[in-house]
Every structure is written in C-alpha cells, then in structure tokens.
Amino acid sequence: MRRIQFIEIHEQPWFPSFLRDDVTDALHYGLAFLKAYAPIGPMLQSTLQSLRSRSIVDLCSGGGGPWLDLSQNLSEGAGANQIQLTDKFPNLRAFQNVRAASGNHITFCADSVDAMKVPRELTGFRTMFSSYHHFPPEEARAVLQDAVDAGQSIGIFEVTRRAPSAIGLMFPWALLVFISTLWMRPFRWSRLFWTYIIPIVPFVVLFDGVISCLRTYRPQELREITGKLTGYQYEWEVGEHLGARGLVPITYLIGRPGEGL
After folding, report:
1. CB neighbours of residue 113 within 10 Å
2. Per the CB 3.0–4.6 Å rule, which of 11, 63, 202, 261 could disulfide with 94?
3. pLDDT one digit per residue (tens) for the chain, 261 residues
4. pTM above threshold 0.85
C-alpha cells in the first residue's frame, strides 16, 4: 500500500477554528480513553533517563496530547521536570484543561509553533504523537533537520498505520465519538450540535483517520528520511512497538545527538 499525501480536513487553514477544536478534543479523548500510547511508557522513561535535558516540548499537541497520562505513569525521578504543549493552531481551552489537571506540571505555549521552525528558546526533548504523518517527505525531513540544527533530541510516535487492519479501526473510532461526546469536558452545546444534529465532527474524525493511516510513514521510510539529514552526528532508533491491547503497533523514531555533542 503506497503512501499518499492527501489532505486532512481539520488541519486546513479554512476549517473553522471552533470545529477544529471539537475535532482535536474528540481525538484527544479517544486516545486517552483507549490509553493508546501507554505501551511506550517504559521506552519514554528510558529515553528521558538517558538525556541531559529533563524538559519536553510537545509539538503538534492538538487537543492536549497524551502527556497527562504518560507523565503520571513515569516512575518518580524518571519523568520530565517540565512538559510544554505547542501547536501551529493551539487549542487553548484544551491546553488550559490539561495544565489544570496536571497541577501546572504541564504548561503550554499560546503562540503558534511550526514544527519545522521551532523557536530556539523552546529547548528540551521534542515529541510528536499522531502528527508526523501530516508532513510530506520534504517537510517531514525539515522537522527532523530543525531538531538536529538546534541540537535537540526528538521522538516521533504514530498509532496509525498503512494497513487494512488500521484503516478498519477508524470506523469504530468514529463511532466512539458518538458514544463519548456527552462525557467530554468542558461541556459545550455546540459540540453536541456538530456531533448529533449535523455530524461534522464524527465525519471529520473518520475521514481524517483513514487519511492519517494512508499518510503514515513506515519504519523503512523513516530511515530513508533520516539518511538525508545533514549536520551533527545523530543516533536514530526506528521501529515498531506492540500497541495497546495488542492491536496496531506504534511506529516510533527517536533521535539524539551522538556522543560528545
């Protein structure tokens, strides 16, 4: 199955921001409900222990990313001192909710942050969850090149996959939106309207979910991208980790400066 570079609706500049927030809220709720990234907790713990920096800059955080759950599962003393959420189109209400729920351990940048041009003052281990597939190959390379140029470590994790089994899971994923919307917080009448009356939110979740699978890079393709980077010597680890409930594997790429840098 070849990778395609088609659009995802919710990432388009013309898509209304209030609907984008509802979509990213739904995606965040689903990932948290399924604990989709819980299996990589030990890997993250090991990575953080090996890094000099104990700060995390989460890129393309959407509705808040998985760090609220992941940070709680890291053993004491192995976690990050500070986790900062960022996005090109920041969902500020969602970020504020995550900050409050974490007791201010997780903060956020209210300004737009481009993953290809991260401000140099944002230092720490860069992470991306379920977002790297948004970038076509040259832009995907630029995301990694920017981390290399800044001398920052980076970790990329994807629960989507270019496989019929993963695409098939997007349909119950969209159904979960119908079931769970009443329990999403903060409660908004508009969210109910765009889910149950005019079901734009579940449609976009389904459409974008299928496209996400078709856009996701395979491990070999990630290796090819890292092979085109220039500058400092970096160590790259690429592979697949067993996913939640033994379903779709989590594709990962972790890069860090080589010894002596």
Report:
1. 23
2. 63
3. 789 989 999 989 999 999 999 999 999 888 888 889 999 988 988 888 888 777 899 999 988 889 988 887 665 555 556 899 999 999 999 999 999 999 998 999 999 999 999 999 999 999 999 999 999 999 999 999 999 999 999 999 999 999 999 999 999 999 999 999 998 877 889 999 999 999 999 999 999 999 999 999 999 999 999 999 999 899 999 999 987 666 679 999 999 998 755
4. yes
How many CB atoms neighbour CB 183 within 10 A? 9
Q: DSSP readout, 41-103? A: HHHHHHHHHH-S--EEEEES-TTT-SHHHHHHHSPTTTS-SEEEEEESS--HHHHHHHHHHTT
Q: Does residue 81 fall inside a structural domain?
A: yes
CB 22, CB 194: distance < 8 Å: yes
β 82-87/55-59 pair status: parallel
| Domain membership of residue 58 as a residue range | 9-257
CA–CA distance, 188 with 62 (Å, rounded to integer)? 18
Residues facing residue 235 across a β-bridge: 256
Cα dihedral: 145, 149, 152, 156 (round 10): 0
The answer to whether position 214 is within a domain reads yes
| Within-domain flag for 53 | yes
For residue 4, tell me if it sits in a domain: no
Q: How many domains does the chain have?
A: 1
Residue closest to 107 by CA, chosen among 139, 146, 68: 68
Tokens of 216: 């996701």
Q: What does each C-alpha distance from 223 to 63, 226, 237 come to in angstroms?
A: 29, 5, 9
| The Cα angle at residue 43 between residues 56 and 243, in degrees rounded to 5 | 110
